[in-house]
Design goal:
five-stranded mixed sheet, 24% helix, 8 helices, 325 residues, seven-stranded mixed sheet, 24% strand
């Protein structure tokens, strides 16, 4: 794992590129994927790349061994290695579909020198719940935090854990609320981390929260697109967390999370404003024929360190193909 500090440059700028749903593995188009990723890197010049799940699999594209995973990641991250760009990831609902548990996969990810991902607390279900801190241009003053969450598999454990196999409350007219998403234990972990960081950093720093599966509020906001300033491509029902575990409310109470970014829904790349917080998709980066080129790309967050110590945040979807929008 890379131990160098993330920091704003001398002009007070820092750029984060979020990508997801690459669905890489044995049988994927590694050459074209590299072309698309390189195109994004050239267009956005990021200081950090966050991969938001479904990096591997599913179906005929698969990862069955740790050796296959390491080979795929070596190829996939080659454009980042060439540019010395640090990167981190969270797992999606397909990464562990073919025999490599996420806990084992995490150890493979951490072998890469530029990888900043962490396994996270062992007491939490899942792998990859961690925080990253971005420092001011002086390299000493904390300015911005990133919260990364494992949002688990689609429906993973809902029926068994919550005994809901006889009654399905997850269908909204206009949103597909069927996924497990964030657990309450992870919300409690976030709340504790937020308090710890405030004490350690001497302030409440603004933050970005990233995960694969959207939280419930993304689905709710999508039901009233005009009210919540929906901006971007919206071509499929939001497939979001079924049971609301309270992360969004906890973030509002703590006052630090200003933006959320998700993967998962390939035909969406939009942003919404919900209760003053921006929730966004990052698009997708898969080369499967069934996917639509106009959503192919990633989401850029451009951060600016202001003279008063505050941080301004701008975000936009950036296409990776001529048809992307």
């Amino acid at each position: 794992m890379n131990t160098d500090k993330l920091k704003f440059d001398s002009a007070g700028k820092f750029r984060i590129l979020c990508i997801s749903d690459i669905h890489a593995g044995v049988g994927y188009n590694k050459k074209l994927t590299s072309v698309y990723l390189t195109t994004l890197l050239n267009k956005t010049s990021p200081n950090l790349v966050l991969m938001l799940g479904d990096i591997a699999g599913p179906g005929v594209i698969h990862i069955e061994t740790a050796a296959q995973l390491k080979e795929m990641l070596t190829e996939l991250t080659a454009p980042l290695t060439k540019r010395n760009i640090p990167w981190a990831h969270v797992f999606g609902n397909h990464d562990d579909n073919f025999g490599v548990p996420n806990e084992k996969a995490q150890t493979v990810y951490e072998e890469f020198p530029l990888c900043l991902s962490k396994a996270g607390p062992k007491e939490l279900y899942g792998a990859g719940n961690y925080t990253l801190t971005l420092y001011g241009h002086d390299g000493q003053t904390p300015r911005f935090n990133i919260y990364a969450f494992d949002s688990h598999g689609s429906g993973h454990g809902l029926e068994e854990t919550y005994k809901m196999n006889t009654y399905n409350p997850f269908v909204f007219d206009g949103a597909d609320m069927c996924d497990r998403g964030i657990d309450v234990s992870q919300v409690m972990w976030y709340y504790g981390e937020s308090m710890r960081l405030e004490k350690e950093q001497g302030r409440v720093c603004p933050a970005l929260a990233v995960m694969h599966i959207p939280i419930t509020e993304m689905g709710l906001a999508s039901l009233s697109p005009e009210k919540y300033d929906l901006n971007g491509v919206f071509e499929e029902k939001v497939s979001c967390q079924a049971l609301n575990s309270g992360l969004f409310r906890a973030g509002i109470e703590r006052g630090d999370i200003k933006h959320y970014c998700f993967g998962h829904d390939h035909n969406n790349n939009f942003s919404v404003k919900y209760c003053g917080i921006t929730l966004s998709y990052d698009g997708y980066l898969s080369c499967h024929d069934c996917h639509k080129a106009k959503q192919l790309g990633g989401r850029l967050y451009e951060l600016t360190e202001n003279f008063d110590g505050s941080v301004s945040i701008k975000t936009e979807f950036t296409g990776a193909s001529p048809l992307a929008r």
